[in-house]
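To make the argument concrete, we let one protein speak, a sequence paired with a row of structure tokens, as a model reads it:
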Amino acid sequence: MGKPEKLVRLSRISLRDHDLSIDLDWRYPQLFEYLQVSPSYRLAHRIAMGMLARDARPLPADFADVERTYAAFGSVYRCFFDDWWIRTAQFRFGASAKPRVHGLLKLTHGEQVDEGKVNEVFTRLDQYLTEERPSEGLPAAVLVAIPVSHDRRRMLRAVAELIERELGPETAQEGVVEAKLLDNKIRERTVATAMRALLVRASSPKTPLYKVGNHLGLAPHYWTDPERPRSDDQDVKRRLMEIVTARQLRRAYLLSEHAARGRFPCLDPLPPDPNRPEFNYATVGKLLWDYVAWGRKHVAKLKARKAEKQRQREALASTGEA
């Protein structure tokens, strides 16, 4: 089975635009989806966005790992995988370019600044903040205006003093990690099945687990007809189907929480921690439905914008013909 065209296309974009050689496979979009449902990652997001005070609840013992992962990958709640990959994730997985000094605007002595120069510096600043700095691993930076004089040594000393004053001696970024997916024997089907079980459970939290397993076809030999009168044989099969389904939901939890800590895909047991948040299926379901609703609106806006641009092109073309 060939690799999905979308992953091939994104790999080519990373190589073409940023010289990042990354062979995307199924693990990358799955990581994105598991970060979306991870309770710990959601907790880090709410704290980072000021939606929850840091001391509002006890935090997991290894929450620093979660916050490092969040610093690397950012929000995953109002974007598609493609956008997240281009904006953020590719720079965490690829070999980032070494940080260098960037010039945003050059002014000669006595030159007046007009609207064109202002637009130029804003364009260059946007390029630096959204493309160049992320590709260099989000290094510490100070944006300055340097007056060029005959005494350039004095200017260089002043720049060094400014950096020292603004950033201090330590300028390394400890919160941003270079990510690497785990190369193990966990198969795509295992990860995808666990996610499917979570989605069905979250969409209907009160549905009995054996019905969730029936719907997903997790164990056909344990399937039972919910409309038939109960019997001892059916009760045994339903209990076994519940065990199979609960195992898939546990896998989904482990995958999501390890992802939040920078390990994916991973099904290793987590150490006991009463402060680590568990799945709340009703909350997960609401978040997913909100995401679907956002996605539909976002796509509609993109289509409307594309249609408007097409109408403008056609109007310009008809004006030229006239």
